[in-house]
Amino acid sequence: MSNGSNDADPAVAGLYGNRFLTEHAPSKEFPTIGMPSLDAMRLVGEELTLDGDPMRNLATFVTTWMEPEAQRIIAENLHRNFIDHAEYPRTAEIEQRCIRMLADLYHAPGETTGARCQGSSEAIMLGALSLKWKWKERREAAGKPVDRPNLIFGGDVHVVWEKFCRYFDVEPRIVPLQEHKYTIGPEDVEPHLDENTIGVAAVLGTTFTGHMDDIRGINDLLVEVEDKKGLHVPLHIDAASGGFVWPFLYPHSEWDFRLETVRSINVSGHKFGLVYPGIGWLIFREKSDLSEDLVFYENYLGKTDATFTLNFSTGSAMVLAQYYNLVRLGRQGYTFVMEAMQKNTSALADQLSATGDFELIGQDEERLPLVAFKLAEKRSYDEFDIAWQLSAERGWMVPAYTLPPNAQDVTIMRALVKQTLSLELVDTLAGDIAQACRTLDEKGRAHPSERKQVKQGFGY
Ligand SMILES: Cc1ncc(COP(=O)(O)O)c(C=O)c1O
């Protein structure tokens, strides 16, 4: 007979559950025996309480809330492998609808093509590969060498661009940033252009400050270079975040296929497309912008399928959720949501500015719904101390980071204002940031052991 203690026999433990409460979680060895489903669920759930709360994660660009109806679609379709086009032809059709709708949003001149990806990183790898292959085709047709391709982009890009260059053997020609100049323009690109340039990548909504490169200026330069020097250099737009913001907040700003040298665009559905991770899109201007050599035709489970992806099996749920958002919101709905974020962004910016503690970075320019700010003057503490104090006092995750070279001496903080940051929460956040500064005024700065724990990444 058991005495009812926690090391009771398994039948008693099974009756009252929670064996994991008094044991360490399996972590190194493959477990010999399992546990009841309820225990497994609670074990995972309880550990996750130690993570940050996604609702207070103002570092991430990625969606942290979707409507219950969208969640239902996701939950009901987790068992559907996206790659099984023969078995799930409507899912494949829904992917194509999303591609066509995005091509329409980006003013593609006619019939086009694209790909559903895991996120913008995969979309960029595929888009840049196509730039490389198309360049190779042009060079080989002209009987010229193909051994020294280069790609031009600014220091304001996401790390994935350098990753592409290293993985796929392309020389990166990176335009460094400068203090007070955090995006690039035609004057920066021009000196790097030559016959081995496979393309230029420009950003719509940088990860660092949310601004756009001078895309029109770069387009005009590339048009001129083709006219005068016969150099054909395509432009790819990394619209990971901006691709679902600019069309709704700044519809008259031209950055997409309205500009003739823009041949491909990537966008993350899981950022301002308002879908949970991971979903991204690659959209070509015309079918011919995708190199035919990169498309694989294969007979899979009885049907010939054309694939242009880096991975094979993946979920369908987020494709369906993206389609849900496109038809649920339409242009009017996306505009409403983006304008709401924009309003709350301005409210946060005004409140931070009114404290006198901070200087805002480029708040009046076209930008993503975020506030980038830095201390207005030198203090005994810096932005990293504030990030620490704010998270310690109130749990907000607002990152502090230094900008890329040659602006590495500039430290900024950045708060994303997403759909879930209501005006009420904006007021609270602004008050909490001010309070963190007052604590630091008294304390001097964060203790070195606290500073070690500051998250220095800029969010994704
Ligand atoms: C400008 C830019 N490009 C690419 C990426 C990578 O996107 P993903 O996380 O969708 O792979 C990000 C992510 O933050 C980004 O901001």
Topology:
Layout lengths: L9 H7 L20 H12 L19 H9 L12 H17 L8 E4 L2 H22 L8 E5 L5 H8 L3 E5 L10 H4 L7 E7 L11 H15 L5 E4 L7 H4 L12 E7 L11 E5 L11 E5 L2 E5 L9 H38 L3 E3 L9 E6 L7 H12 L5 E3 L8 E6 L6 H21 L4 H4 L9
Helix pairs in contact: 3-10, 4-10, 10-12, 11-12
Give the neighbour order of strands across the main sheet.
1-7-6-5-4-2-3
Largest sheet entry: 7 strands, mixed
What's the total number of strands? 13
Q: What characteristic shape results from the CA principal axes? A: globular
Oligomer: single chain
Provide a concise account of the structure shown.
This protein is of the alpha/beta class and 460 residues long. It has 13 helices and 13 strands. It binds pyridoxal-5'-phosphate.
Description:
By secondary structure, the chain is of the alpha/beta class. 38% of the residues lie in helices and 14% in strands. The chain has 13 helices and 13 strands. The strands form three sheets. Strands 1-7-6-5-4-2-3 form a seven-stranded mixed beta sheet, with helices on both faces. Strands 10-11-13-12 form a four-stranded antiparallel beta sheet. It has a two-stranded antiparallel ribbon with strand order 8-9. Helix 8 (215-229) links the parallel strand 4 and strand 5. The longest helix has 38 residues, at 317-354. It is globular, with a radius of gyration of 25 Å. Bound molecules: pyridoxal-5'-phosphate. Pyridoxal-5'-phosphate (PLP) is lined by residues 61, 119-121, 158, 160, 203, 207, 238, 240-241, 268, 280, 460.
